[in-house]
Amino acid sequence: MTSPETPTSSGQPQDLAKLIELAAAISAAQDAMTDDIVTRLASAMGEGMILMDRLTRNQGLMSLLQALNQPAVQDNLERLAEALRSGSVIETVGARTPKTGGYGGLLRMARDPDVQDAIYMLARVVKGMNPDDASKN
Amino acid sequence: MKILFVGGGMGGTIVANNVARRLAREVREGKVEITMLSATDQHWYQPGLLYVAFGKMALSDIVREQSNLLEPGIKFFVDPVEEFELAQNKVRTKGGVVHDYDMLVIATGCEAVYDEVPGLEEASETPYTREGATRMFKRLRDFEGGKVAIVVGVPHKCPIAPIEITFMLHEFFEKRGIRDKVELKYTYPIARIHNIENIANWAVPEFERMEVDYETFFNMKEVDVENRIVHSEEGTEKEFDLLVTVPPHRGMKVIEENNLGEGGWIPTDRYSLQMEGQDNVYVLGDTSNLPISKTGSTAHFQSEVIGENIASIFRTGLATREYDGKVYCFIEADKDRATNACFNYIDPPEIRAPTKSMHMLKMSYNQWYWSSARGLL
User: What is the pLDDT of residues B150-172, one digit of tens each?
Assistant: First the structure.
C-alpha cells in the first residue's frame, strides 16, 4: 500500500522514455540544421509575419474579405473560376489578335446579351466605387 | 498633433512605427501628423556587421530601403536636422526646411570616433563600420598566424561585442585550422574583463578554455603603427600582428553643436525618457546619456515606453509607462553555440551555458529584425 502523496503512476518510465525520445528527435533536428537553413526558414517566417501583419491591418482588404464571405459573392466567384477554366476564355485570353476588328466587330460583340450583362455589371461596380453614389445602390 | 522623429536608425524607426500603429486611426483622420527626418534613405541592421566581418553575411543581407520599413502614415524625408530650436518647438534641416512639432523624439544615435587614440584608425580592423567589416573579413581570411590583440574604447555600442568578437575570432581561426598559430590577446579598460560582473565571471573560464590571454585596466593611449604596438594609459603595451578594435563612440555632432548634450549625449530621465527640462522631447537609444547598454534592444524596449506614452498623452493627456532599464543581448560563443543576457536597472543578468538552440535563435533574429523595425516583434 502506498500513501496518496507518493507518485506511483505506472506510466512514469514510459513517459520518461517518451521525453528522452522527443529530446533525441529535437537534438537530431538541431544537428541537421545549418546556419543557412535556419536563416532561410527564419527569413520566410519573418517575411510571412510582415505579410500577415500588412494584410490583417489593411481595412480595405478586410472589407473585401467580408464581402467575399457572402454566399452570393462566393457563388459568383465559383462561376468566375469556372469561366476562367473553360476553353473559350483560355482561347480568347491567349489569342494575340482579335479574329475581327473595327466598328463592325465591335457592334457584333455589343449585340451579344452576355457582353451587355458584363458591361452592365462593370458599370454597377464603377458606380458603386463612387462615394457619392455608393449610398444609392 | 504633430509628432516629429529625428533619426531613422533602429531606434527612430521602431518608435515611429510603434506610434503610427497606436495612432493609425488618428493619422488617417488627419488628427495626428507623423514625420521622420533622416540622413539617409537606407536602413542598416548594424549588428549584422559583426557577421559580415566574419564572412557569415553579406552587406546586401543587412540593408533595406528605409521608406519600405515605415508605416504608411509616416511622412519620410531624407533631410537631416541641423538646428534644434526647442524653445520654439521647431527644427531646421540641412535643406533649409523648418518643421514644427508638438512632440519631438530624438534618435540620432552615436558613431565610432578615432581621434582620441592616435594611430588606431590606420592600424586596426573593426566590425563597427561597413567598410571596416568588409576589410576585417579580408584580413582575417588572409591572416596566417601571429599575435591578435583586441582593444576596447569606451563608451561603445553593444557592450557584449568585445567578448563576442574574441569568441568569434577563436572559432574562425579554429575552423581555418590555424588556431595553434594565433595568440589571442584580449584587453579591457576596467578591473575585470567586462563591465557587467556576471558576464565577466562567466567569460573568464570560457577565455581560459579557449586559451585567450587577457589583461584588464588597459585604456588605449596610442598605437605605434610602424612597430605594431598599442600603448595604454596605464603604461603597459601590447604587440600585435593584427589589431581588432571596438572603437570609442560619441553622440552625433549635431547634438553637441546645438548644445543639447556634452559629447553628443542628451541628458535624459532614466524612467520617463524625456529630455531633462523638456517635457515634449523624448530621447531614445544611443542618443541618451543614460549609463546603460547602447544596443538595439535598449532602443527597442524604450520605444515601447515612448510609443505608449505619446499615444496616451494624445488621448488622455497623461503618460502611463516608465522604462525599467531592460536590455537583452545575444552572446555568440564558439562551436555554433550562443547564450543571452537579460537585465534591467535592478536585476543583473544571469548567464547560462551556451547552446545551439540559442545560436539558432540569434541567427533567426538576424532575419526577424525587419519585423522588429516595422514595430511588429
Answer: 999 999 999 999 999 999 999 99
Angle among Cα A28, A32, A37 to the nearest 5 degrees reads 140
The pTM of the full predicted model, rounded to 2 decimals, is 0.85
Is B20 in contact with B74 (CB distance < 8 Å)? yes
User: What pLDDT is stored for residue A10 in this prediction?
Assistant: 58
Closest to B244 measured CA to CA, from B158, B312, B174, B163: B163
Residue B312: pLDDT band with limits 50, 70, 90: very high
Please check whether residue B160 is in contact with residue B136, taking contact to mean a CB–CB distance below 8 angstroms: no
Nearest 5°: CA angle at B41, between B48 and B99?
A: 125
For chain A, say whether B58 makes contact (Cβ under 8 Å).
no
- Please report the domains of chain B, with CATH numbers, ordered by start residue: 2-109+252-326 (3.50.50.60), 113-248 (3.50.50.60)
**Which positions in chain A touch B367 (Cβ < 8 Å)?**
39, 42-43, 45-46
What are the residues whose beta carbons fall under 8 Å from the beta carbon of B156, sequence distance 6 or more? B112, B128, B246, B247, B248, B249, B294
The residue behind cell 553643436 is: B257
Judge if ipTM > 0.90: no
pLDDT band at A137 (very low <50, low <70, confident <90, very high): very low
- Mutant choice from A39, A52, A56 vs B, greatest count of B C-beta within 10 A: A39
Nearest to B240 by CA among B249, B250, B229: B229
pLDDT of residue A85: 81
